[in-house]
Amino acid sequence: NSFCTLLGANMAHGAIEGSILTPEQEQQRWLTEGVNAAMGKATLMKAAMNEGNTLGVLQYASQMLAELRTSMLTPQYYYELYMRVFNEMQPLEAFFYEEVRSGRQQVENLYATVQHAGNIVPRLMLLITIGSVYIKSQAAPAKDILQDLIEMVKGVQHPTRGLFVRHYLSTLLKNKLPDVDNEYEGTGGTVIDSATFVLRNFREMAWLWYRMETKSNVRDKRQRDRERSDLRLLIGFNLVRLSQLDGIDKAMYQDRILPVVLQIILDFKEPIQQQYLLEVVVQVFPDEFHLATLKSLLEAVTGVVSGVNVQSVLGPLMERLGNYVVSVREGTTEATLTKKEEKMITKMFALFQEKISELVNQHSQQSFPPVAFMETAFALMKLTLRAYPDAHDRVDGVLGLVHQYFSQTGSVDDASAKVLRKALDFAIAEIGDINTVLDFENYVSVIGLLSFARRREVGKGLVEKAATLGVKIDTAERVGKLFEIISPMVKDVDDTPANKEDIYTIDVEEEFIEEQHVVCKALHLVDSPDLKELNRLYSAMRRELGKGGPERMRYTLKAMSSLYIRLALRVKKAEVNGETPGVSVAKLFNYLYTGDGGGILEHLASQVPVEAFHMFLTAANAADTCDQHELETCYNLYASAFQLYEENGGSTKLQLQMLNAMISSLSALRTMPEDRYDTLASKLCQYSSKLVHKPDQSRMVMLCSHMFWKKALSEDLHKKASECLSRALKLADNVPAGLQFGLFAEILNHYAYYYNAQMPQATPKTVNAVVAMNRDAIESTEDKTSETFKTAKRFYSNTRAAISQRAAAGDERWGLIEV
Fold it and tell me: 24, 306, 519, 650: most buried, per Cβ within 10 A?
């Protein structure tokens, strides 16, 4: 036991003294050691530079660069070491150039001397540095030095070290390549020599990068991919430099540059490499170059290996081309389109459509996943609407691609559905005409691929946008498509969830009502100047709404009633103007009311009687305007409204509201036969007299008087207006004293109205008697501080003031009223 205790104590002590490092800590330690060693040699190198000791400079520089020979660091940490060393190499190049310029050293000798360095990495880094000085001094043609250096760097075949050596080569020489009108052109070479140099370096770097995947000792693919991704900028820099050469014109790019670049990309069949390099090609070269070489570029994209996210290439390419076409046409860029470019723009959509279709057919979902495809299709739609703003059939072509792809997958996942929703909204916003979108062959079928919830969203969005734009839908085919799109809101479809909580997530009732209001908006979108056709459209809509069940119809039938009423008025107006609308007013009202329970209003009354009551009154007024009395349509509508009042006017408050509505509606009639009118008006007087509270009776009877005071009515009915006033006054005289004043004030106001209208029964004596009754009521009111009394007093005072003003204006009749 003592031995075991002692052994455990020693092990614990050892764990503290020499703790195990994590891989990151180990990398950091090696990096620190490498940087410290390199910076120590850099200090000595700078001291030698200050002393003018060229051999010492070369010695310490070689020792500093030797730290880059390490194989212990991952690419990420190696990059940090390389950048520290790179920064120290800048003054070294300046030192050697000054030595050569001053004549203290011959560049040829330096170039030869550094080739004797012991290790290849330091030797090549020094050789590149002196080579840069060699070109800058123009002691030899730049093309010869470039040729020599590109051959020399082949000596480093370790992927990481080789990539950084070549990156150093391209970075140090980036401003020393022969180009049009620069100091190195001519005897130093041409832009073709420079392009050849960059392309050779690009090929070798691509090969080394590829070897990191195929020859790496790292077994974890994710780590291997991460390490390769850390170095991608080194390879892409070559393409950036190519794009910066001014001497490369469109023809050279098309014939000599892009074919080589694409061949290099396609030769190394690895997805990370192909995807990144194609992305760089799209990003760095000019838009007009892409337009001229679009076919070749798209063929390369379709030739990539499985696993490449082609959307990251195609999306930016289409966005750039779309912006380019718009900027040229709007004159915001100096470029002008040639006939060849105009022709290419015409063919551009077909090329993209063809190649995307090829990608859909030849790649699995893994290599061309739904979201990537949908984003690609969205980008193509944007390009289409920018490059061909009036060619809407091409937008339908994009939707055809979407339908083709998701028909194969069987459904649209949620992430793809979000992108599709954006694309559909974008198309409507850009086109600005719902009818054009509904005419697309693939629009409805694409929406049909979405889930129930997504179809509801799209349907609501479509209706709201159409309502905002004020667009009207006017054909049966378009109406059919509209109802197919909004079907999840109109009726229960095959995939409607059984529980409402799965549809409406916050407030079930409120969200359901809001949804039905959207459906009602959709109904109001349908219109046509052809009234016969509009009637057919309404009939089709009515049949669809009937499939929604009572819960939905209580909302939608109100909107349908309004539409039929409006259509009846339009038909009547057309008939008055001598037109032949092709549908009769009687038929339209028959849709609303049949008398046997089959009309829209009758169905509505069985669901929401009070709301139906108001629709009956509206329909009755419209029937009167349309002179629908021969079949007693107007009278029957009122009779039904009265029945609803009798059956559903439960509370006093509701009774007063309904009575007010009926009196107002009946007072507006113009063509109803007098006998029928008298029957209805007398019925309302009876309803008023049967109210529970006498003040309410008095007020309603008072209002009833207006139904009988119309010029078109006979003298007998005019007398009934006076009888209503007398009845109201009698009822008011029998209410409690505290409530009398308010009623008397209102009755005085009505008498003043009829006195002004010269009603025979409204004599000065009668009006003065009512004034006296008001005075007595004021005197008898005990509580003169109540709000009820104050309100009545203000109303009474206003009436007196109006009478006094008439008298003061010189009207002798008003002077007879003693206020």
Answer: 519
